[in-house]
Every structure is written in C-alpha cells, then in structure tokens.
Design brief:
GTP Cyclohydrolase I, domain 2; four-stranded antiparallel beta sheet; alpha+beta; 35% strand
C-alpha cells in the first residue's frame, strides 16, 4: 500500500454562499491524498497499472469549474467523481481551501477536509 499526494492545486473559481463570491471569484487550493496498492506499478513501471494522477488532476479541475455554495459540496463532488472514474483506490482524503474568505477579518484560509 502507498500514498499518492497531489498538493496545492490552485484554481481561481466562483464558489461561495454570497452572490458576489460567485461573480467575483476567489483563489482555492486543493490537496488530495490517495491510498492505493503500489506493488504492481512499482514492479511494472507501466502507467496502466497505476492510478493516473494526471487524470485525477483533470477530474479535480473539472469539479472546480462548477459553481457551489459550500466547500463541503465541492469536496463531496470531487470524491464522487474520482471514485466514479478511477479504479484501485482504497481511500481518498481531499482538502479544499478558500483563500482570504470574506468573513469580516483577516483570515488566510478556511478549509474542509473529507475522506472516503
């Protein structure tokens, strides 16, 4: 068993509770940790035996392009989309962070972490 970590995927997206957030947009960061068996790809050195993390990135990107009100909704959609398309994954943990959220003070980010 091993872990694939894709960190600090940066997107400018239009998510948020407030209408203005969905118009103006904001910077978001997404981190993924994928737990998968790596014995076969470690021996074969063949992408067809591994979780293709370029495809995982493309899935995350497509989900970040769809507007949502809540970070929880984005994280859940990312998990659903990856599991629907990819095989050989035991567990995924996704962290979605909104940078500089409009919360009435100086806040670096707010994040949601979900695992399945």
């Amino acid at each position: 068993m091993g872990l694939i970590q894709i960190e600090n995927m940066e997107f400018y997206s239009f998510h948020g509770h407030f209408k203005e957030e969905r118009i103006v947009g904001n910077k978001f960061l997404v981190d993924l940790t994928i737990e998968t068996e790596m014995k076969v790809p470690a021996a074969s050195d063949n992408l067809k035996d591994a979780v293709n993390y370029q495809r995982v990135y493309d899935i995350v990107k497509s989900q970040m392009e769809m507007k949502s009100h809540l970070l929880e909704h984005i994280a859940g959609r990312i998990l659903d989309a990856i599991y629907a398309e990819m095989e050989g994954i035991e567990k995924i943990t996704v962290k979605v962070s909104k940078m500089n959220p409009p919360m009435g003070g100086k806040i670096g980010s707010v994040s949601v972490v979900m695992s399945r």
